[in-house]
Amino acid sequence: MRNRACTRPSAACFEGGEKVVPLMPTSRTSALRGEGTPSVGASVLKCESPGEAEGMRPGVWDKIKDHPCYSEEAHHHYARMHVAVAPACNIQCNYCNRKYDCSNESRPGVTSRKLTPEQAVKKVMVVASRIPQLTVVGVAGPGDSLASPGTTFETFRLLKERVPDVKLCLSTNGLALPDFVDDICRYNIDHVTITINMIDPVVGARIYPWIFWNRRRLTGTDAACVLHERQMQGLEMLTERGVLTKINSVLIPGINDKHLIEVNRAVKQRGAFLHNIMPLISDPSHGTYFGLHGPRGPTSRELRTVQEACSGGLKLMRHCRQCRADAVGLLDEDRGAEFSLESIEQMDIGYDRNIRQEYQFRTETELMAQREAKREVPALTKVRKATGALKVNIAVATKGRGRVNGHFGNISELKIFEVSASGAHFVGYRRVELYCQGGYGDDERLVRIIRAINDCHAIFVAKIGICPRKELADAGIESVEQYAGEIVEVAARSWFNDYSSRVAGGGSLRKHCDETHDQAKDV
């Protein structure tokens, strides 16, 4: 059974929703977003950081350069850790079902165990001694970090005292945020994520059944109005204090998909640094209201359409993994199962700040070498007339560190890049099933893998077998092995130069099927 290629889909048209006028900024937030204006004639020099190239103030780049959630580059090299010390929540979301003894789901709000502050700090010290690239520790649930302020800030106090070389961050729905900005600054928590799904209470009433505020339970548009006002107030207060803020928004088809452009605009006005638009996880087995009653999760095209519609506004995050409340490790290699409470009781802490600094120095040295290699790759000075403004998608099998180093049979997700004469631009992740099972390839899974990447012209791998190579070729997808071990962006541009030459020489552009493209899921 083969997946035949047919007509490639055109870009879906985004239609704007009803105009919503949000609360206007009340301060000089636009000047405090971390954006600057490069001097006239400035160019990307070898000593220039990526942050400077993007117009960030140097202090902002220093905050994000080793934060895997705030920097797409950093997430290949640096690890994060969530400690599940905040079980309570002050709102109900229709897409959420917190589970406290769950090891088989990978989504926000689930954890294997709730921790006390002391347990959390011991776990962090054990992990830091075994994962020296750990740079960030956050409280992200399983409830809301500011609905359990006592345990949350006691955890941060102990971390600041005992593990001073990690960045601290927290995630919140924003309802209680204005009440705790002073505490956030007191403990040097300089990264905060706020989940903001709406600025229109009518939209919000369809997402949030209730909130608990000022000792009262509010419902409907009354609840959504209070939540919106508190979120905007908290965001402005953080911006005034110089705290970098990431906004998470869940894309819910039919509810806020057309509304998120207004959300993007409103949070940018108030000084947010980054906007992460995530797909709704709608699975009946999770027991959420949306999972049981709808709506469905968005397709890859729907997600990307909204992201592209917001691309002229606040900078977007595209590498989110929608992590558990007890996630540990690199974003694409969670190691939480290694560090259960029972197992860490048997481990020596062994926390050595000097060893960690040495490892991270080597990592930064490697990153600098990779940046330099990317700059030295010759770009196409002009696209040949035969190819026009050619852009193609590629899939990359990688085990991390920004290189082509994944075996086709052993990957559970692929990175998707859009490649053109201007370079390789990260689009998102696609989850796929493991092709190899017990040493043998699974033909049915291969069909589904091909369907998942049928909008891609090539797949870059460190190794691939003869059978999957042939099936991919029959579907019009080129298997590329010659760049094994190379930096992804360097390999992609080199391949694209060759590919565009083939097209200019009379080779045909492969075409794709609307139906299969819609089934692909970026994550």
TrEMBL record:
Domain annotation Radical SAM core: ranges: 75-326
Pathway assigned to this chain's UniProt record: Cofactor biosynthesis; Fe-Mo cofactor biosynthesis
Cited SUPFAM superfamilies: Nitrogenase accessory factor-like, Radical SAM enzymes
Cofactor or coenzyme needed: [4Fe-4S] cluster
Record keywords: 4Fe-4S, Iron, Iron-sulfur, Lyase, Metal-binding, Nitrogen fixation, Plasmid, S-adenosyl-L-methionine
Gene3D superfamilies, A to Z: Aldolase class I, Dinitrogenase iron-molybdenum cofactor biosynthesis domain
Molecular function GO labels: 4 iron, 4 sulfur cluster binding; lyase activity; metal ion binding
PROSITE patterns: MOAA_NIFB_PQQE, RADICAL_SAM
A Pfam family it matches: Nitro_FeMo-Co
InterPro entries with a match to the protein in the record: Aldolase_TIM, Di-Nase_FeMo-co_biosynth, DiNase_FeMo-co_biosyn_sf, MoaA_NifB_PqqE_Fe-S-bd_CS, Nase_CF_NifB, NifB_C, rSAM, rSAM_sf
Family from the record: Belongs to the radical SAM superfamily. NifB family.
Known role: Involved in the biosynthesis of the iron-molybdenum cofactor (FeMo-co or M-cluster) found in the dinitrogenase enzyme of the nitrogenase complex in nitrogen-fixing microorganisms. NifB catalyzes the crucial step of radical SAM-dependent carbide insertion that occurs concomitant with the insertion of a 9th sulfur and the rearrangement/coupling of two [4Fe-4S] clusters into a [8Fe-9S-C] cluster, the precursor to the M-cluster.
NCBIfam families: nifB (TIGR01290)
Record protein name field: FeMo cofactor biosynthesis protein NifB
Species assigned in the record: Cupriavidus taiwanensis (strain DSM 17343 / BCRC 17206 / CCUG 44338 / CIP 107171 / LMG 19424 / R1) (Ralstonia taiwanensis (strain LMG 19424))
